[in-house]
């Protein structure tokens, strides 16, 4: 591992940089940040928070992990990143309350992220709405100097 530990924006501290917008039969996550890396990370946090309140999720060092994801363009990278996070939730019940995109390589469309959280336990954690899938429908990614935002619709 040998990498320096990233600085986190903790959802437990209430520093949310995402919101939910109504969409017929689905939900649209709108996330933002000072960079595209931060906006992608906040989209992931928004997804987890929709399934269970992140304010109830602790940081268990045994659950911390790296995510390495790739795509063929910006939209497929966001889709694949969120899809990988959803897959880990679905198969391992890992809920990430901290998520930092360490690198986002636009030449190769690869992303490396570090996450921390804990395993979801029914009865101990509140159940939100299950997210079944990420979609490309109406996906938007915008980036300006010191400002980025993403819109992604998820199937619930």
Any overview of this molecule?
The chain has 156 residues and is of the alpha+beta class. Strands 1, 2, 6, 7 and 8 form a 5-stranded antiparallel beta sheet that branches. It has 2 helices and 8 strands. It has a single domain (17-155), classed as Archease, Possible Chaperone, Chain: A, domain 1 (3-Layer(bab) Sandwich). The relative contact order is 0.25. Helix 1 (36-51) runs parallel beside helix 2. 22% of the residues lie in helices and 37% in strands.
Structural topology:
Layout: E1 18-23, E2 26-33, H1 36-51, E3 65-70, H2 74-92, E4 94-105, E5 110-119, E6 133-134, E7 140-144, E8 147-155
Antiparallel strand pairs: 1-2, 2-8, 3-5, 4-5, 6-8, 7-8
Helix pairs in contact: 1-2
The CATH architecture comes to 3-Layer(bab) Sandwich
According to CATH, the homologous superfamily is Archease domain
Estimated radius of gyration: 14 Å
Mind summarizing the main beta sheet? 5 strands, antiparallel
Order of helices and strands: EEHEHEEEEE
Mean pLDDT, to the nearest integer, reads: 90
Beginning-to-end CA distance, first to last residue: 35 Å
Unreliable spans are: 1-13
Question: Structural class per helix/strand content?
Answer: alpha+beta
> Level of helix content?
10-25%
The share of residues in extended strands comes to 35-45%
Total strands: the figure is 8
The CATH class is identified as Alpha Beta
Which descriptor suits the 3D outline? globular
